[in-house]
Amino acid sequence: MTQKKSLLEVKDLCKHYPIRKGLLSRIAGYVYAVDGVSFSIHEGETLGLVGESGCGKSTVGRTILKLIEPTRGEILWQGERIDELSRSEMVPYRKEIQAVFQDPYSSLNPRMRAADIVSEPLRNFEKLSQEAGRERVAALFERVGLRPDQMVRYPHEFSGGQRQRLGIARALSVKPKLIMCDEPVSALDVSVQAQVINLLGDLQQEFGVSYLFIAHDLAVVKHISHRIAVMYLGRIVELAETQELFSHAAHPYTEALLSAVPIPDPKHQRKQIVLGGDVPSPINRPSGCHFHTRCPYAQKICSSQVPKLEEISPNHFVSCHFKL
């Protein structure tokens, strides 16, 4: 893939939630939701962020959006740091970074009509006449597969897939450069998932928008992503271009995830790797490599030393002492 200009850079991003106990609410520990995550997203690119539930991938997205404040680390938007900006200072950047959330119903105001939901960002960021705004919203409805006559409806009058299309139209209304998609299809039927994924791909081709696509389903991520980052317990353990990751996975956790992806061929069966034990708590994390308690290849060094995220081939990064 041709190297493009970097839109977003995340450097050593951390989000630790304090645990308070006792009458004086003293800090007794921390939940290490995100612990040293680094990556970049280029213009017109989709970066897939995958991992088990609770690994911290949604927290990464919400921290980038500044919906929650990072504990430490740097977030750079087109070379400018935004992680230290106040809410008022973030306003100019809100137009360029939009979001589509997992639940298409709870992310929409049930008391607002569909047209008002989509036009709200326009009223906040652009000074359009009422007629021009209505025309823009009608065009967006048609572009995402909704009818203009549905603009007067309320969210409860739409199906799940239609509500997600409504959320996509809202995100697109101010022509952002990056859209953070947090599990945008996990609450939808399989047939509707494919429609929404194809829509996102078409919109990227048309508008040149970039995506941070957060999901737990590798099959879905493979269809839309240029590169994939695999997270485990708050850290990125592997980052590579999509085809490279699927053909030459180098981390044992990625290998296990890929073994669970179904193959649409009854004659070809893949041996599934079943990981032992449970996912460790983000409060009491294992020392060294977080994955060593479940890793079939773990050695003594894995429990004492944290492996660095190193480049083992062009654009392929792995955090493991023993690459596969």
What does this entry look like structurally?
With 324 residues, the chain is of the alpha/beta class. It has a domain at 6-96 and 176-247: Rossmann fold (3-Layer(aba) Sandwich). The protein has helices at residues 57-64, 87-94, 114-125, 130-143, 160-172, 190-207, 218-224, 242-247, 252-259; strands at 6-21, 26-42, 46-50, 72-77, 80-81, 97-100, 178-182, 210-215, 227-232, 235-241, 309-313, 316-319. The strands form two sheets. Strands 6-7-8-3-9-10-12-11 form an eight-stranded mixed sheet, sandwiched between helices. Strands 2-1-4-5 form a four-stranded antiparallel sheet. It is globular. The model has no long low-confidence stretch (mean pLDDT 91).
